[in-house]
């Protein structure tokens, strides 16, 4: 039996158009969430991996310090996650997304203008904090906009924005390097700040807070209403460590260890972005059919295999690693989010997903610093990637404890007009 909790949370039932659904319907809402995720994650977080070698050579001069910058970004993301969880009963999910986009925009602008490492710290912290305000509530908003039978697909579509952002960052970095040389990094963040501002303006205009009040208190303990919440939470921690190492150091590993040219390494990273875009949609839709547990477990197994291919340092294994990792990277959290959304309304989802993300964030705090320390000590990134693969396998074991298909609560009503 699941653990007792103070206030029972009934399975989430999608609201009708007059009961607080975001304005514009899913055809407007989902593309906007895709762009918001691209800004929050692709620009504000994962884009740093592409610029890390240039930033390190120009301003930082230490992979350990460069890793610490990534850790600070993740620490700020963790703080933002905690804020979203604790204020879910007072701040509408859509309002959180809009505020987060403004903060990410400001962070990117500071990074582009940073005259020193201290400036980089400020920019990374602001961008990371804002990214959490965008991403934590976003899957719940997407899941609430469609009927239950397509919830995994909708959340996967929203998550595909991460891949869109990574692809855009990769293409932009390659273009800037072709024009200004491989050491250029400020123009990349400057252009991303402009793009982020445009998305923020669109969100201010079209992403409206829900009008309907929420009955009953909204607490982090809402997570305990979700079947298999312990295994889901632990799996997200292993996922966090694996992703932190891979996404922070994969480009540096291919350039430093394997001798890839910067253009080659960026192209491999772009493959990650392409497959990140598809992973949430494909794996999320797959989970609608085969069940959350099977889809999540196999996604983590695939992720572990992809990470183990990085130390090989040769083609076609680099591209294969990037493709499988990208699919799993958005596939696994999409299924996790769908598993939570099967039982929770959008505000309680934000509180519960924030609680799960706290464990994810704590693991990610360790990843960049640990990877950078290992690289400085051993002169190679191989050991760091072995640790990351072990974390992904641990996540697979934890997710295998989720209830079998059909055990989770599912809504009995569907939102009309869902996509």
UniProtKB/TrEMBL annotation:
KW Membrane (keyword) present: yes
Q: Which residues form the Major facilitator superfamily (MFS) profile domain?
A: 30-407
Task: State the source organism's domain of life.
Answer: Bacteria
Q: Which PROSITE patterns match?
A: MFS, SUGAR_TRANSPORT_1
**Gene3D superfamilies per the UniProt record, alphabetical:** MFS general substrate transporter like domains (1.20.1250.20)
Q: Which SUPFAM superfamilies match?
A: MFS general substrate transporter
**What transmembrane ranges does the database entry give?**
28-51, 63-88, 100-118, 124-146, 153-176, 188-207, 228-254, 260-283, 295-312, 318-337, 349-367, 379-402
Q: Which InterPro entries does the protein's record reference?
A: MFS_4 (IPR010645), MFS_dom (IPR020846), MFS_trans_sf (IPR036259), Sugar_transporter_CS (IPR005829)
How does this protein lie in the membrane?
Answer: Multi-pass membrane protein
**Where found, per UniProt?**
Cell membrane
Instruction: Give UniProt keywords alphabetically.
Output: Membrane, Transmembrane, Transmembrane helix
Write down the Pfam families for this protein, in alphabetical order.
Answer: MFS_4
Instruction: Name it.
Output: YbfB/YjiJ family MFS transporter
Q: Which organism is it from?
A: Blastococcus jejuensis
